[in-house]
């Protein structure tokens, strides 16, 4: 297939490719540094990358891909047991790290190559096929040890080109974000995306609404973030006209990795006149859908399937929906060149993830409008609640709860009920812990916005919701004894 990064060889010149804090690399210097890495890892098969939010991580991954090897990003915050499992499962030949990084056991037992951002080496000719692995990214492991999703080079290229079509993304764009680099969002979209377009990425190191605002005031055109980041932005904008003006100047604000509550959409739009674009993807599928940059605002939806991606909803027995009405809840299945090829060393898990005709079972539940727009309502395992004969998605109840002024954060789960099958439980972080809203008040609030059968029957108050590194609520950590 053609090169993943044509800008590295097509007269790379002095355009800035990467900037992390006060350190940057032009395309010419990135080509040289990544070429040097490629020379060190050629023939290595799989290469572990100690994925700190640094210039060296970006150089390491690009160099590994140039060499035709597969990068295995390692989360520096992972515990020893998880790291040992990932390294045993993926069996990398070596680990790439920034000079001075202290690597924990068992990573320290691997042959190590320090990444020198100032090194020089030739960019090798790309002879790899699209089916060859580019990345092995490990899932969160919520239902067992993390599984390594093998992502082929064609999936990376297809997703980034499809997003370029949906977002009108070009080499003139400057992307700012503060996402971690061991996930698809921060690494594939947030680093490889700009490099494939020939644009620039400015990484904040650590996300801060004002730091992102300064970059948007200084030429950045796009911001990628997760809902917890946009919630912080929504909180700060109303009282800071200068910050609001910075965000108003963005060409595109993109949120992903979890649903962005509608009330945060509305607050950001009210303060800036800009809408936040949502998209939907997974480790195993990269990106599936997005609201288009040239489309109408659709808060609460993740848009339509990207070019080349097929998407359908199915009933519990696997029967595809004949038509979409924006009400019926079904599981999302997808098919297309954006899909992973396998779970490494897990043939049974791989087979179980696909239908006989090649559709990937996402485990995500959604409704779909007649015009094709998709609205995610949650995960099949944790967010589909069967109560009183109804199938209810937790996401829409969470959005309704967040519209109540007494609610700062909210999560919804189901628990067994002898009469209803499951009863709806609201886990709430109150805006004022000294004066939290009561169950009757919140139940009436939800019933007035949705339907009576969607009102919570139990209220549990928390100081904070458990979240992972990407800001997703970890619902399996919400147990009956966790709240007040």
Automatic annotation (TrEMBL):
Gene3D superfamilies: 3.30.300.30, N-terminal domain of ligase-like. Residues 12-344 form the AMP-dependent synthetase/ligase domain. GO terms for molecular function: medium-chain fatty acid-CoA ligase activity. GO terms for biological process: fatty acid metabolic process. Residues 396-472 form the AMP-binding enzyme C-terminal domain. It holds the Pfam family AMP-binding. NCBIfam families: PRK07787.1. Belongs to the ATP-dependent AMP-binding enzyme family. PANTHER family: ACYL-COA SYNTHETASE (PTHR43201), ACYL-COA SYNTHETASE FAMILY MEMBER 3 (PTHR43201:SF8). This is Acyl-CoA synthetase. It comes from Streptomyces tagetis.
């Amino acid at each position: 297939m053609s090169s993943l990064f044509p800008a590295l060889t097509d007269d790379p010149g002095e355009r800035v490719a990467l900037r992390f804090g006060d350190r940057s690399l032009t395309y010419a210097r990135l080509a040289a540094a990544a070429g040097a890495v490629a020379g060190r890892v050629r023939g290595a098969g799989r290469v572990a990358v100690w994925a700190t939010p640094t210039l060296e991580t970006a150089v390491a991954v690009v160099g590994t891909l140039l060499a035709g090897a597969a990068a295995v990003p390692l989360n520096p915050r992972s515990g020893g047991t998880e790291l040992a499992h990932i390294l045993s499962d993926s069996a990398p030949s070596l680990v790439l790290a920034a000079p001075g990084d202290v690597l924990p056991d068992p990573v320290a037992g691997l042959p190590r190559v320090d990444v020198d951002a100032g090194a020089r080496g030739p960019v090798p000719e790309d002879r790899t096929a699209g089916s060859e692995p580019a990345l092995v990214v490990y899932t969160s492991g919520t239902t067992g040890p993390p599984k390594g999703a093998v992502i082929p080079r064609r999936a990376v290229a297809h997703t980034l080109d499809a997003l370029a079509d949906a977002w009108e993304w070009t080499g003139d764009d400057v992307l700012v974000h503060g996402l971690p680099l061991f996930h698809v969002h921060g690494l594939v979209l947030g680093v490889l995306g700009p490099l494939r377009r020939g644009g620039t990425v400015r990484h904040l190191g650590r996300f801060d609404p004002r730091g992102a605002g300064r970059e948007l005031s200084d030429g950045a055109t796009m911001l990628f973030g997760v809902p917890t980041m946009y919630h912080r932005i929504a909180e700060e904008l109303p009282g800071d006209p200068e910050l609001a003006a910075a965000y108003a100047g963005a060409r595109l604000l993109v949120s992903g990795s979890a649903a962005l509550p509608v009330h945060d959409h509305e607050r950001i739009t009210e303060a800036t006149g800009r809408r936040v674009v949502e998209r939907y993807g997974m480790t195993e599928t990269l990106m599936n859908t997005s609201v288009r940059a040239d489309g109408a605002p659709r808060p609460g939806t993740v848009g339509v399937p990207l070019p080349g991606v097929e998407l359908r909803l199915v009933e519990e027995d696997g029967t595809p929906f004949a038509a979409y009405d924006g009400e019926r809840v079904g599981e999302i299945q997808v098919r297309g060149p954006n899909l992973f090829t396998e779970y490494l060393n897990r043939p049974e898990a791989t087979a179980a993830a696909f239908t006989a005709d090649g559709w990937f079972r996402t485990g995500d539940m959604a409704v779909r409008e007649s015009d094709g727009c998709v609205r995610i309502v949650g995960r099949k395992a944790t967010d589909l609640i069967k109560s009183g004969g109804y199938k209810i998605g937790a996401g829409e109840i969470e959005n309704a709860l967040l519209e109540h002024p007494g609610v700062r954060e909210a999560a919804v789960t189901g628990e067994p009920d002898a009469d209803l099958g499951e009863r709806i439980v609201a886990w709430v972080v109150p805006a004022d812990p000294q004066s939290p809203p009561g169950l009757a008040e919140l139940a009436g609030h939800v019933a007035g916005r949705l339907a009576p059968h969607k009102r919570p029957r139990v209220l549990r108050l928390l100081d904070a919701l458990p979240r992972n590194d990407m800001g997703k609520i970890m619902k399996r950590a919400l147990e009956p004894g966790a709240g007040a």
